[in-house]
Amino acid sequence: MAHKHSNESTPRQKTYGVLAEFDNVSSLMAAAKVVRDAGYTKWDAHTPFPVHGLDDAMGVKPTKLPWVIFGAGLTGLSFALGLQWWTNAHDYQFLISGKPMFSLPANVPVIFELTVLFSAFTAFFGCLAFNKLPELFHPLFGSARFRKATDDRFFISVEAADPQFDVVKTSGMLKSLHSTNVETVMVDDSPEAARIPKGIVLGTAVLASLTLIPLALIARAREVTTTKPRVHIIPDDMDQQYKFKAQTAYSFFADGRASRVPPEGTVAVEDLEPGTPFQTGKQGETFLAQLPPEVVMSDALMARGQERYDVYCAPCHGLSGYGDGLVAKRADRLREGTWVPPSSLHSDNVRAQAIGQLFNSISFGVRNMPAYGPLIPEQDRWAIVTYVKALQLSQYAPKDAVPAEDLPALQ
Amino acid sequence: MHAIHKTEDRTSVETLAPSLIKVGAILAVLGLGAAAFVGLRGEDGGKHFWFSYLHNLTFVLTISLGALFFVILQHLTRAGWSAALRRIAEFMTGNLWILAIAFLPILLQVLSHKTTIYIWLDEELAQNDHLIHAKHGYLNASFFAARCVFYFVVWTGLARFYGKRSLAQDHNGDLKHTVTMQKFSPISMLLFASTLTFAAFDILMSLDPHWYSTMFGVYIFAGTVLSFLAACILMTRYVQSHGALTKTVTVEHYHDLGKLQFGFVFFWSYIAFSQFMLYWYANIPEETIWYKHRMEGGWTNWSWALLFGHFAIPFIGLISRHAKRRLPILSFWAAYLLVMHWVDLYWLIMPNLDPHHAPFGLVDVACCVGMVGLWLAGFGVASKGKNLLAVRDPRLNESLAFQNF
Fold it and tell me: How far is B188 from B162, CA to CA, in rounded Å?
């Protein structure tokens, strides 16, 4: 309702602007053009449905939003590129399917998605922002007739804030444009109206402080220790497993143990017969200096040895045996202080070892190197040691071992 | 909101069609003649000529097929905005029968088992090569020929079905034509989609019978619609420059064509990249060899040209609303995209002729001129004496009043 001015105890009112009502589209359009041409800038038209051509009639300039969206899209693209570079190629280099660490074709799906996501969010929220939405209250809601703006009437409102605004002149102009009603819209200007109601302020403060509670609880949990069992948020989680651990009691069996004793005749792995020289590389206490009779030296054996060496040994000892394998290199780079470098197979003490000792080291492990016996069958282990011997020879060959035609190149 | 009365605007230009026929025919004869003269006498037994012939025929065929897709689509979706443009697209489908005749030399080669173009025709290869032997039930001369005939029969049949009824409606405005065209549009679209997909497999993909891609049909489809939209923009501008349809086809229609153009630039890129990425990632030699040929040697630059020229540059060029509403800019991009579509098909087809370097020469230019001439002449024949506007289409008023945002 348009409030009338009063000299008494009604709240202080300010003119918001002038509202003109029209009952058809063509008079609205014509009026809009007149208002546009008269030079007004702070005004708007209100219609129940979109009216084609109203933008032009009002002189509305094309929006800058597309440029903002374009910028957002570029941001999304750069962000996606940076994200994938950082996580896959820099911070924790992740080798996937043998592809390059920073691999553009593999990165494209995420780039595409983030470009679109940033653009779409910007389009939506940008549209709201450019329209200054959400707007909880508008002075025009004070006009009872304005309700028809969502029904079957069309309106033009001109704000008092417009530099050209004059209540009499503007109302007069609008009246002359075939409007069915022109009214002055007032808005409550008193300081009480501008203040946010106490209840809302109080409620927001309470809610804001409530949100600190979970954060405080988390902070506390990180610092405090407890002997109480963990809170199980998800019941029947795998925290409680219905199984018996070793060395626990269980009354079901006569001896009261949950673990059963191994049956008669069980042999522990460590108690196994040491085996033949073919299996251990040792004859009694001495390491074999020659291949055992079960292994026949041949080109095929050497080739197999090279192939198996490259598979099992090269990751640590390197392809040429110097202890520069990929695993060793990475461990060096990580510098965690727990790594013992693998031996160079060309060091003096390794070269001095008999072939049986090499075999024994592979089979049962030595110092930090684990036992490879369970992984590699004996025949292959012998092939590997023949290859290791060949590698060692290659680095320390005497001059007369070099074929005549290659000598000049070395001199 | 301004409904333009149809009779205010010129809807036909008597001199247009005859000049298109004349110029087109001359270009066709000169172009194809020169190409044949140079190409068939070469040391390669005419291989380059036949590949170029196939390439350029495919180029103009995809434009007309894109037009057919557009016509069926407008009926399928009961679209109103396009009614003012649809007759131009219908004329483009009207030259499919001429392109069918132009396909005959290739068909004859297939039926006489000449392995100039399709190596799977070689009987010895079909026996000894494991893969080609396995595909022999599909890739053999008679089945292939039967399929090609079927494709062209379906395409020319659909073109005639829609063209005839649209033209008949000019005289009496009978709504039953629109109803019929709408009613058969779903099955028409299914027929179109399946024939285009399998034609792509047969005519283009079988050039390398060891390779396959299930996405290939979609890839060709993307280029097909893209090239039609470009041709439609250019042809409509051409017609307007001769005084017809100047008030009926407005910047609003061009804006929508531009939007579709932009969308299909991106769609093509999406499909092209998807096909590439899946093969790159799986890294299976049987599949990657096709890309290896196109990424190495003399073909590297063509691949870069496609990545930037067919995707990145037109994407940026067409993204702005203003680019789509300024006709000189839009026409530039339309012409540019037609060229890039030609480059795309060249990149698809020619590495089968020479996997190591691009055999670009006079034959390619001459064949292109010849086939484009043939296509233009066909358009002229289809449009001779007919209205350029579907004057009594029930949705024409909606199209004339159409406004974009």
Answer: 10
